[in-house]
Amino acid sequence: MSLPPEKASELKQIIHNHLLKMDIHGKIREVLAEVVKDEGGSAHQSLSEADLLRALHRRGIIDDVMKDLPFTQAEHSKIEAQPSQKTATHFADKDITQLKKSNVDPSKRYLYLQVLGGKAFLEHLHEPESLPGQVCSTFTLYVHFRNQRFRSKPVPCACEPDLKEGFLLEIHRDSFGEGTKMADATAMLSICDRVHLVLIKTDTSNETTLISSYFVDWRAVLSSPSGKTCFAVELMGVGSEFKVPAGVLTVSLELYPPLVETLSSDVISTQQSLERQRTAEKEKLFLVYAKQWWREFLEIRPSHKSKMVKIFAQDENGINRPVCSFVRVLRAGRLLESPRQAARFVSLLAYEKAPVVGGGGGKQEQWCTLMAFLCGGKGDCEDHATLLCSLLLGFGLDAYVCVGTKAKGVPHTWVLTRGTDGSITFWESLTAHRYLHQPIDSDAPPLAPQPKPSSPYRTVGCVFNHQTFLANCQPTDAVELCVFDLQNQSRWKAMSEEALRSVCAPGSTASLPPLPPLCAPTLDPAATSNQMELEMRYLVSEHRKDLGLATVWDDHLSYLLSSALSAYELERCSGVSCGNEEFQDAVRRAVPDGHTFKGFPIHFLHCNARRAFATCLKSPFCEEIVCCRGDHMRLAVRVRVFVYPENACAVWLMFACKYLSIL
């Protein structure tokens, strides 16, 4: 395979720089002197190039060059943002690790982060050693740095997991006009973005658990004369266990190319201390302002004390942050085409309340950072609502997160959008359902017709987005009576936008987690659909065999079910039903006169065929089809997997049968 001229010169430059760094000429001279000496100093005997190469190989010089040459080693890390890779992120990784080549620009600076192994994961102290080919629980490490996302290959869970990975992170400038220049030590010192590490455990049934979320300040490498540093990172637990160590990772950092002039460790520690002081000062001033604002809010009505006005929330690391910092303007590029498709994508991320150890029925406070939510693939209603609001803001809508309650007073969050005509639409982030809000006029005559509440929401205490926070100061917080005229100060008490910007705007404080980009799906929907359909056929055949029934498949009828499954997903995505007439017409043609047709569609968020089949059999309608007896009985099954960003899957499955009706 031939390289373009610019790539060839780039590669030559990298090799040349590396050979100079190794002092390869000095080593060749030493070997040459030794070879001549071994030959007895015979001047008349000529030394060929092949003899010299053999001598270099024998002394391990060539092996050292190839081993240490940067950027050509086997890179096990998967770059999630490249759709060309076909590795599952939410499911068992069955792909063979292939050689990973990195495109390196010699004019840019890179940080090579290596994880050299883990230890002290005491929760897995008695984990049995996995046998080759055996399905076991795994750890996967996810990395985010300045709009770049990577993930490691999954490794078996153990007290000392074999997490050994390398991630090549580009360090680019933010300033306009200098984005193409290589960042020097001073420029890199001013970059306060940290490397976000997220460790996820995946069990044997593909259920994920967030183990740790950790931020690494990488700037210690700027003081290393060799351009390389190594240290241990103590990962802490999450949620109620945020003070409990989860394990230790050994991490190595290296700059490419190395710095000509390094900084002193005192300069770096002074910069970090100044950043911490500025952050603490801003957070303290905002806290003082928030307390004063809250006192003013309570003075309006004493009953306001019971309203759900949420100013701060705790993230997975136990850090209290203003709720507005959890929402950012998030653009999905080409990955999502419309606001409704964005709502569909968010609804496909699994819903799970923050886990609590022990009983008591209390709700654990945990609003996840976006990176932790996306890597785990599941979260609470707050995580879904803040992500959906961020995406809708990216699509140019005037979107807000609502905090309130639904039926039976259960706390809940959802999303609200305001149209230019004043219309109010509620978006349920867990289901992608939309509700048009029409408030009841409390001043209308008793017999005047009033709109019926269409949404499941009962009360609303406050609404917020990335730059606005508004508390409901209307006489009642009942949603059906609320008027969402957010500019009306007699109905909604606003916080100072300047105060919110000081702690919530991107880059305002060093402690604010950076916004990760969405990653393109790496699953092949056709291959995944085919694999799951084959597994489903096998499970049905085995189930019928246990009942003493034969199984005959109708491939044509199975194929016809595709159009129905496609129409179901389109309806979920756009709210428009279409294609049903064509499906019904095709089925009528495929089912002979006197025969009966039965079909059962069902929807899942995972690709585990056994789990799906067990769920299907709980439905009497499905069991009636799978266990059907009759004359000329034919079975059909079709699976369609629709893949969204982050490998979120909408799995549609349909069982059908046709048989001769006998009276």
UniProtKB/TrEMBL annotation:
GO cellular component terms listed in the entry, alphabetical order = centriole
Which Pfam families does the entry mention? CEP76-C2, CEP76_C, CEP76_N, CEPT76_peptidase
- Subcellular locations according to the entry: Cytoplasm, Cytoskeleton, Microtubule organizing center, Centrosome, Centriole
Q: Is Cytoplasm there in the keyword field?
A: yes
Q: Where would I find the CEP76 N-terminal domain in this sequence?
A: 10-69
Centrosomal protein of 76 kDa C-terminal domain mapped to chain residues: 524-659
Identify the residues that the record assigns to the CEP76 C2 domain, covering every copy: 103-258
Q: Coiled-coil annotation: which residues?
A: none
Start and end of every CEP76/DRC7 peptidase-like domain? 365-495
Q: In which broad location class does this protein mainly occur, judging by the first location in its UniProt entry?
A: cytoplasm
Query: Which InterPro entries does the record match to this protein?
Result: CEP76, CEP76-C2, CEP76_C, CEP76_N, CEPT76/DRC7_peptidase-like_dom, Papain-like_cys_pep_sf
- Top-level taxonomic group: Eukaryota
Family, per entry: Belongs to the CEP76 family.
Q: What does this protein do?
A: Centrosomal protein involved in regulation of centriole duplication. Required to limit centriole duplication to once per cell cycle by preventing centriole reduplication.
Protein name in UniProt: Centrosomal protein of 76 kDa
